[in-house]
Design goal:
homodimer; Aspartate Aminotransferase, domain 2; Aspartate Aminotransferase, domain 1; three-stranded antiparallel beta sheet
Amino acid sequence: MSRIYNFSAGPSMLPLEVLEQCAAEMTDYKGSGMSVMEMSHRSPVYDAIIKETEADFRKLMNIPDNYKVLFLQGGASTQFAAVPLNLMKTGKADYVVSGQFSKKAFKEAQKYGDAKCIASSEDRTFAYIPEITPDMVREDADYVHVCYNNTIFGTKYPEVPNVGDKVLVADMSSCITSEPVDVTKFGCIYAGAQKNMAPAGLTVVIIREDLLGTEKEFTPVMLNYKEMAENDSMYNTPPCYAIYVAGLVYKWALKNGGLEAMKKRNEEKAAILYDYIDSSKLFKATADKKCRSMMNVCFVTGDADLDKKFCKEAEAAGLSNLKGHRSVGGMRASIYNAMPKEGVEALVAFMKKFEAENA
Amino acid sequence: MSRIYNFSAGPSMLPLEVLEQCAAEMTDYKGSGMSVMEMSHRSPVYDAIIKETEADFRKLMNIPDNYKVLFLQGGASTQFAAVPLNLMKTGKADYVVSGQFSKKAFKEAQKYGDAKCIASSEDRTFAYIPEITPDMVREDADYVHVCYNNTIFGTKYPEVPNVGDKVLVADMSSCITSEPVDVTKFGCIYAGAQKNMAPAGLTVVIIREDLLGTEKEFTPVMLNYKEMAENDSMYNTPPCYAIYVAGLVYKWALKNGGLEAMKKRNEEKAAILYDYIDSSKLFKATADKKCRSMMNVCFVTGDADLDKKFCKEAEAAGLSNLKGHRSVGGMRASIYNAMPKEGVEALVAFMKKFEAENA
């Protein structure tokens, strides 16, 4: 077996030991005589799995007791509707547009009420995070929505935006569990699991309990946070296997020092890459320095043909999925928790060689 | 390893050879150096997987070209909202209530328009399928909705209901791919995959193309059939791994003779069980004979304590998850495609022994 370094923006690398455990337990989970894929979600053996997964996630993220954790389906794009359907109780919400996904979230919210874009960084192709101050937020807005890390453009909020006493809602799909986050500063955090936590098909929602119960009448039951919370994410069959894998990934993260340690590792990895890019005469980072993402490192040569050559040769060298998103081109190295430091070092070594050959 | 016979109503048994292939390919899918869980859904290697899965599903179900196949998330319960949101174009729809899930579908539809229950079997705890004739359907109804196999009550439509020229919509979660179905008689078929096709977290929708494009304005984008069809189920990241497993299951079914052969196997299995129950003095089947499900065989002793004893002793004998749904009690043996005939024979042998011991 020869594993490659996979820089995909998502779905993306999982820890090898997690995959090995999945394989080992595939036909018989801990003597149950069944695969986790085959278990009734209401059986005691599965109940223990989902409960332990939630407990580990709470421990990892330091989630206070007055927040519910929901294991849902449909990806962040489903949450783009669920958030306004549940939280736009008086009909107004403010959105910060810092990339393609926050733009989609903003567009979706307009179906359900008066959604306003209070700040955008589209003027410079989302190369930065707009500054947010409490006075920008409408007094009667129900919440402020942000996308905390922008996967396509490689930017991240340098700190939690100050929205005064407003409810802050954050899409953290591409940075969740990459570093500690003060959950109490948010009313709702949601994330597709397929970047840092699990295979695609699981969406995690963390929501403050007092925000439950204000959904619109025509909210589909499966998008109703209160209903999902009251049923412990089991109104119907949850994505059982993805939850099991998430549980293994949480255990891996806890065993490896939790989110403080993840942050340290991720900072080191990002520094190796950004430091080289900043010193390079061929490559240039596209995001403003103070808003750079630790998870998605975007860069270009400035020559589309050379970018293409780079991605092709990198692929052949076992450095996979480095092509930037089709909307921006260039290159993107997604270096989530499961990407080892060795992968980033191998990438930089390859970049140096490529630079020398293409000077 | 000792595999048990798992009679769970869903998630449920998968073919052992499929699980073994999942395990073998877990850390390196066909020399890609990646798990299927780690692949970008837009990569060539994954594109081949989803395309082949769809092609095999179309072949297996004999789906005509004027029907789209969608690989979605959220389970049938999400479709309970999606169906009226997309298909209730003039605002009226007729529902047949033949069990708990069709009741939930009917309730959900009432959020979006004038949904009418045109027939119900609730008077006898859903022990039968109500008869449907075209004159029962409202002239201006947009569609008629049925649940084709009722998992909890063990009933199935003996034939496709005659709704005249109306669009027929069917929830086939617990019988899809168990036997051939004439897709052309339906406008829309949907199914959660976790019973006969894949792990939980995948929902398959088969929809006639001319029915696309009449969704309500406030339909969440992820519940919009047209949007999903135009994006080949990749508006966002689909449940990639569950789709891969479904693909392996479809290949297994095709290799084993397709749906005609599945039907034969399933009829045989069901006959072994029903024939014994009908001859038994202890056990009694709960569904009316002409509406009996081939997939979910429900039976009772008539004594709740004895039912409990039966389930407990069966569990200890490696015959798992035979307890009936909490809403009806008794026993239920779910014998989907992946349950081998040997499993049913082992169950009947155990039932005979139990009957002798508890005469």
